[in-house]
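Much of what follows relies on a compact textual record of a protein's fold. With that in mind, consider the following protein and its fold in token form.
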Amino acid sequence: MAVATTWVFAEIVDGKPVAAVLELLTKARSLGGTVEAVALSSQAEETAAVLGEYGATTLHAGTDAAYGELLPGGPTADAIAALAADQKPDLILIASTYLGRDVAGRLAAKLDVPVIANGLDVSADGEVSVQSSIFGATQDVTTAFEGKKPALALIRPKSFAAESGGGSPATVTPIATDIAEQHRAVKVVERREEAASGPKLEEAPVVISGGRGLGDPKNFELLEQLAALIGGAVGASRAVVDAGWVPYSMQVGQTGKTVKPTVYIAVGISGAMQHTVGMKSAKTIIAINRDGDAPIFKLADLGVVGDALKILPQVIEEIKARK
């Protein structure tokens, strides 16, 4: 299955494509063939310049204001399925975000094609194949697509670096709006943005994550103090999220967010594969844990065996003194 045309679903938030879209466009350029983007948003046309810069030559844009008022998964999948039936792309790449997973599942059913989820890489050397993680991130497998097109893949954010290709603005091609009545039955009545005092977890240059080794939810305050001092963001292991210590939005790992910071500090985290798959690409990994045999030390560039509740206050005071 050679790739003549690759589509990237361009999820738009606050008038801009999410970072993972630019990562996918960068990867799509390397596969050869034509790269096109599909966006369903009243602000879709405004993204033509940045999508073109990262490689899209065409932007298929649905700009009906209703896309911002309805639950987006259903109408988005309908629009892409109808367009794909007419245009017949070879490959559709979708970022594995909340919306992306919703759209991909619906789209696979409508097009009657399989979808490979949890993708880490894509290649098109003779046939389209996707490298993905399985069995709790303990094994990586490569799966090739055969038969009916398009190939459909969900790719984890941060799998690729977003790099500008210096392209011209994408040519905008309008998508006819035909939103089914069943999708109009449920409307979004309010949107609330989670309050954050620092950088977003996925974008922070430094991420400090805590696990059960912190002993108590209140000890996350130490991580927050340190993050505020060094311009970082606070993350967490699945164990403490499941225990109700912190919200799911802070979870790093296979079933949470993937981060790729300059520095990742794991505090009281043992280092299960389900967690490390979400942070192992950090440039520098620092681990603090009382258990010297914790698996996280095998991944760490710098390991500190000790009580984080004694170590972190000293680190915080030293940083304050140097400032």
User: Anything to note?
Assistant: The chain is about 25% helix and 25% strand.
